[in-house]
Amino acid sequence: MIIIFSGFLLRIALIIYNIEIATLPGADADAVHFHEEAQRYNIYLDTKDLLSGYKWDHAVGWIYAPFLGYFYNLFGTGSMYFSGLLSCFVWFLSALVFRKIMLKINYEKKKINLAILVYTFLIPTSIIYTAITLREVYMLLFFNLFALSLVNIYYKSDIKKILLDSIIILFTLFFLLTLHKGNLYFFVIFTPLMIIYYYINKFTISKKTLFGLLIFIVFFLDYYGYGEIIFDTIKNYQLGHFNIFPDRATYYTRDGIQNMDYGPITIFIYAFKNFFYYFTEPAIYRIGNFKDVVLFCENTIRLILLVIIIKKSLLKFNNKILFIIFLIMAILMEGIYAQGTVNWGTASRHHVPIMGIFILLTFFPLRKFR
């Protein structure tokens, strides 16, 4: 708890620095946009009775700004101090949930302390992103709550408690969807994968059968044109994230993406490149400033953790089912966000929501399988 509370105080100090002294890296652009949009919604709440017939409209996945605006209005403030302190408090809750998961699965005390230390301090950009006015910290909390509810269901036999955790899962799904529309793709894919994994465990399906099933799915998607729809969706989403002026941090060019044509092999190469760049950029030869150095070090740490996770996935141990569920969550979430990212600055933010699950996997206890 001392580590968590220290991380909470550090984030509050960063909020003060960001507002009073100098803008932190990543605290401009979207963070300012969300704050300004929240202020507009605050004004709208005060004047909506005078605006006959006008109703505030926001797209799915963009409820964060109206959410902040509602609290600005409720507490009678429009200060970035308030939204920043709210982010710090949400991170604090996420850390408590993160710790609770490890206690439920019976992590060793040393591993719990080390995992919390990594969660709190080891990834510098996440410290900033979980303190300023961004929605990633809320997504981090809800993904942790989602994981905790799954753990509770795994261990409980009481139908009433299982029903309660199922309701909590539905609430987390709702809030994650309203925070970012990319989360919709996560749960649309995650649900059938869980069903498939259940039947793999139940009937011990062979690897050859699974490989054959994968080939069939690829053929089905390609034959009926769904593969091309997926390809065009990724391509158009990435094209929409290029700025008018060239961005030094992009690992693609607009023309390079624009000139790609669909093919059943091309889509796999494209998806793999997105995932690879998402985890490895900026490459050492692309480093141009101190922030790039920090991101390069973070990616190195993340890749080391990934190697540890892959090694663990090949072993047999107790609670392996929970490990696989967490692994599917992490790979799926990172894979989806990798497809919509074209620069390493944005990638560093997109790693935050699933960061807790990633660290849980790294320190997952390897007790002997019985």
Describe what you observe in this structure.
- By secondary structure, this protein is mainly α.
- It has two domains: 1-136, no CATH class; 181-370, no CATH class.
- The protein contains 17 helices and no strands.
- It has helices at residues 2-20, 30-47, 64-75, 80-105, 109-122, 124-129, 136-155, 159-179, 182-203, 207-223, 226-239, 254-258, 266-280, 290-313, 320-339, 344-350, 355-362.
- 30% of the residues are buried.
- The mean pLDDT is 87.
How would you summarize what this structure contains?
The protein is mainly α and 370 residues long. It is 72% helix and 0% strand.
Biggest sheet statistics:
none
DSSP summary: helix tally: 17
Low-confidence parts, pLDDT < 50 over ≥5 residues?
none
Q: Shape from CA axes?
A: globular
